[in-house]
Amino acid sequence: MKLAAFVTVLAFVLLGAGPVLAQEGESRLDQALGMINDDPVGARAILEEMSKAGDAEAMNALAGLVEYDNDNWPGDPARASELREDALRGGSKAAALNIALRIMMDADSDHARGIQLLQLADSEEKLRPVANYGWGRAYLFGWGVATDMAKGVGHFQAFLDSNMGSGAFVVDSHFLLGRAYRNGWDVEVDAPRAYSHFAIASAQGDPRAQWNVGMMLLTGEGVEKDEAEAYRHVRMSAEGGHLDGMTSHAVMLALGQGVEVDAAAAREWYHAAAELGSAHATRGLGGMLLSNEGGDPDPALGIALLELAEEAGDPIAPQILDFVEDALEELRAEIDAARAEWLTAVGPPDPVN
Questions:
Q1: Of 44, 75, 313, 326, which is most buried with the most CB atoms under 10 A?
Q2: What is the pTM of this model?
């Protein structure tokens, strides 16, 4: 990835950067930003010098340059954070926007501060289009403002329409718009439109979007049904570590949806997802352990996992347990031992929403 991608927030647009080669009348900041792809070491040297002299916009640009690992130096996120705070104190509204956007990406951050910084960034016309992304998350989730999903959707669309975004912000906007139109978040349900947004985010490697694309292709929701293509997307989502993707991957391998049945692989994926807290995967693994499907049977652990899944709210686990009711009393000691061992090693599954 080119280093320019790391200079937040879109310094080439927001700070008025010039071309790679300095032109007459071009500022040293413009020159440094223009050098980032072809001479990152030289660009950093200029930004370091300007930052030491107290240039707030140089501090903001330097923060984006040093934050992540690259071929020239290891990333230093702690220093990047300090530089942005120094830039903010020095009057950089671009730094205010950078900090605000990071706050609005984190459910546990100080959202009241994020709103204050977004308001500050909004006072700068050239920052306002990108600030829409932060406002979108604020209104969608009710972070620092009253929840207004329709307004959040509007901000995300305005951000995308401005063509001033790239990378993670754009991908996340498409993903969230996909969810909004698929689930009717204060907008009319529009499955084809939802699929279109998910597909854009999926193509950029977002495992959350890949899972949604897979599910919509599997059922023909907003797009022509295609089980093989659905499996391809679900597999990518699973390999990207998305928990829903991992669970669905196991299901598709177990049922042969878009792929040949592979019970052993299905059991492995169920196990991996169960260890990460999926109640559905815990139930799926429990069911496979009750039989010789995908490996050796382990009825005691299988029943223990089904009971844990039931307690977490999985709706299918009780139905399976009804079929093995006669074994519950006979195997109770072994079930309780298996349960205790699993809880010690893994913990209980997350509650089903």
A1: 44
A2: 0.88
